[in-house]
Every structure is written in C-alpha cells, then in structure tokens.
Amino acid sequence: MNVEKVINNNLVRSRDTRNREVLVMGCGLGFKKKPGDAIDEDRIEKVYRLDSRNDLDAMETILASVPLEVLQALNDIVAYGKLSLHTELSDGLMVNLADHIAFALERHGQGLDLSNALLSEIRSFYPHEYEIGMKALEIIRKHTGSTLPRDEAGFIALQLLCFHTDRCWGAGRQRIQGC
Question: Which H or E run contains 93?
Fold first, then answer.
C-alpha cells in the first residue's frame, strides 16, 4: 500500500489490493510521509473500509480529530464486541463510537458527565451489550487513564445494538429514525 493522503501522523488514506479506498491507522504511520510513499506494513494497526465515499470522508474527519489512544481503545472495543457477539460490526460503528467517546472524555474532564435515564432498561433488556459496554469502559481506562461513569456503558450498548442487528436499518441500509 502507498500513501494517497496524509491525514495526520497516525492516519493516512490509501488503496487496498482491490483498489478500494481505505483509511489506514498506526502509530506514526503518516509521520514525514507524502503521497506515493510506501506504508510500513508492520506499523498498521487497523484498516478501515467503508462502502461509500461519504462514509469514508465522515470517518476521516472524525478519526483525524480523535487522539491515538482513543482510537486504539476503540479498536480493542470493536474487536471485543465482534468476539463477544460472534458477528461482524460495521466500521461505521468506529465513527459513531469515536465521536461519542471522544466527547464523553472531554465532558468527563470538565466534570460534565451525562446521566443515562435508560440505564436500568438497557441493563435489563440488553444485558450482553451492556456487559460489552462495561468492558469498553475498562478498555477506555486502560488506554486513556480516564474512568468514565457506568452511564456510558449504556450509551455504548445502544451503539453496539444498532450496529449488530438489522433493527435500526431499513431496506437499502437507510438509518431508521431514532437509532
């Protein structure tokens, strides 16, 4: 793979072996790189592939603004979720979780944690997703040093729920209002 565009020191745009546009993440992957330079395959931590150009652009915008330790936490959360749920999870989940967790960490740093009014219902109706959300909080603490409140496990559980079922997606993969 070769660099097409350097997004930041840890994220570059490239093309995979099937000539599909991808975002490639790794510590220092984009440092002192320019278009056409080869990507050091040993430094690749994650390759993101999305079906539409708009989704890829949205992912690029969000991931470019998220600190590397948050992206590393997200990779671990999604990997754990895939393993635990025995299913594939869309890279679109990374976009939503990256944005949500980065903002949750920012709010938490300012002492502005949000209360999740649906937490007990989420725990009751979606215990598996809630358990993954709790594990996500551990992963976030490990990578960032911040301990987010349990309410965030519920918010994460809802994200997982929408990305591992068809309940929130209609025909043509259009998002259903409210998910």
Answer: helix 92-109
**117-153 pLDDT, tens per residue?**
999 999 999 999 999 999 999 999 999 999 999 999 9
Q: How far is 12 from 73, CA to CA, in rounded Å?
A: 19
Phi-psi region at 84: left, alpha or beta (left = phi > 0; alpha = psi -120 to 50): alpha
DSSP reduced 3-state for 74: helix
Strand order, beta sheet including 21-25: 5-8, 11-15, 21-25, 46-49
Which one, of 59, 1, 48, 2, lies nearest residue 25 by Cα? 48
- Exposed/middle/buried for 134, CB within 10 Å: 0-12, 13-18, 19+? middle
**What are the beta bridge partners of residue 23?**
13, 48
d(CA 28, CA 80): 24
Evaluate if pTM is beyond 0.85: no
Q: Which residue in this structure is represented by tokens 């009014």?
A: 117
